[in-house]
Amino acid sequence: MTRIDTSAETQPARAEKAPPALIALDWGTTALRAYLLDASGAVLDTRASSAGIMNLPKPAAEGGFDAVFDATCGAWLANDASLPVLAAGMVGSAQGWLEAPYVSTPADPAALVAGIVRVTTLKGVTVHIVPGVLEDGALPNVMRGEETQIFGALASDATLDQQPHGGLIGLPGTHAKWAVVSKGRIERFYTFMTGETFAALRDHTILGRTMRATDKHDLDAFIRGVDTAKNDGDAGLLATIFSTRTLGLTGQLQPEQQADYLSGLLIGHELRGLNEVLAREQAELAGKALRLIGNDALCERYRYALARFGCHDARTVAHATERGLHRIALQAGLIPASSSATN
Amino acid sequence: MTRIDTSAETQPARAEKAPPALIALDWGTTALRAYLLDASGAVLDTRASSAGIMNLPKPAAEGGFDAVFDATCGAWLANDASLPVLAAGMVGSAQGWLEAPYVSTPADPAALVAGIVRVTTLKGVTVHIVPGVLEDGALPNVMRGEETQIFGALASDATLDQQPHGGLIGLPGTHAKWAVVSKGRIERFYTFMTGETFAALRDHTILGRTMRATDKHDLDAFIRGVDTAKNDGDAGLLATIFSTRTLGLTGQLQPEQQADYLSGLLIGHELRGLNEVLAREQAELAGKALRLIGNDALCERYRYALARFGCHDARTVAHATERGLHRIALQAGLIPASSSATN
Fold first, then answer.
1. Among candidate residues B121, B7, B131, B116, the one with its CA nearest the CA of residue B72
2. B237: nearest CA in chain A?
3. Do B235 and A193 touch (CB under 8 A)?
4. Which of A29, B6, B67, B96 could cross-link to B91 by cystine, CB 3.0-4.6 Å?
5. Do the chains contact at B139 and A276, CB–CB below 8 Å?
6. What's the CATH number of domain A19-145+324-341, 3.30.420.300, 3.40.50.2300, 2.60.120.10, 3.40.960.10?
């Protein structure tokens, strides 16, 4: 029996392998993802941990952050103790390792770099933490982690922020973000609590009681929800969501369709609201070339919904997080710029 | 020591006490309220039970409805077994005692009477059940019980449904209803899941985590929420609710103010949506004389919110339920009309 060395297949030999130049951390509420990058931003190795900042194995005061950091990145640092470390996400929140106060919009990478805070681990390693971004006003908005993904998207798409009304980047999820970017800056952004509201309505109101769970995604029911929000949503979300129940009561929506319909309604109201705020600057979703950052299945749902609003160019940006961390590390001088240029 | 007979004080002697003429039941999901009325609709006695249709002491198939009915109304029927019985509310739903199929809008008392169903108790008493009302369309709406309260409000306010664009009646609550009434009919109505959505957001999303419970109602925070929905709510509810958190993060809203602010936001979005659908018929809340049906504290909140929308005439209609049941019983011939006319 022939033994096949699979590692030789998945790791093709390179003429000359670039050395590690950065440890990049995406440290959020529920997970930590760590990347070992070379100076050009190529990913040499990755680690993942479920030890998000709300899920540490021991309290922060007892070295919880240090323990997770050592377990995740210790082997990389054992080979090269001088590797710079850059982290983004909720690790910089008031509940994180060290608070990195928000930077205000409009925000560019230089502003983020100026706001970086440094924490020294028990073993003497300096961890640089990227600040989040705040947009103040009657409805303040905050992000932590998404700013880094947005600059990652800009780093890989040079024309995105050169559009007449600015580029538009959507980050679907629990708290969906929509950012307007222009000339390398985050100009403004909006938060929609779409994912979390969907879960609360499904799991904790009467709407969930007539739903039947299914593995099958019902695209027609989803689109119907989007269209209802778009075309019949004048009375607002509090009114339209009740149709999830009444369409069931009147035999027009099956129990296994109701969750997808409700999801479509909420995403439809999100896009309708986004269109309203874009209209203030004579912009609109119809005909817009925008970008999405997020998991493939969710971005695919948003593409279907965006198409109902006339937007047919909404590609997903891959690897936005590690590209953003690399971009900020370059700006911060953590990686020599000359080294990057030669790779 | 002198013994005071308090019953003589609380039940003043009447020249001639009218005999009971109707047992009127308001039987909802979580409670049953029973009224013993004379032919003029005056309340002679009341009973209350927590045995709503979802809270029966034993299953319906084992006589749960009969048991609750006997315990609540048995003494009244022992005195006069011929008393007619009329019930409204979820008791007529598919999960109730006997389903009374919905009557379609526009609906008047005659249509409700034509839709009454009759169930005979194990002891041979006929219970008449008022049907709910359905408004069909892309966003179907249903009510059960509110139709009876609405006709109760019309019975006590002769000019309400004679306004140019129809009268408007609001029933705040878990699922708030707003009905347009004209010439003695419910023309159309809307449902807003305001109360239930508020509870789901407060208890099951991140918004509740920074709230501090308090017994004190913070009117300023509530009004601020209403105004934000009205003046800065273009992006929609999914966007504005996040400000409950971010105004806290930026020190502009105290933890004990956040629940009232969120309540104001939701009620503000409800009224904003209502204004949008009223605008289709060149109507608006501003300057409107409308009526509210519901508990005093909640109606008071709505009055403050309505004032921000320019509506300063929104009195609460008292006793709408028993008046509505009396009105429908008259129409159904359960009480002789001549008897009522002489009282």
1. B121
2. A237
3. no
4. B96
5. no
6. 3.30.420.300
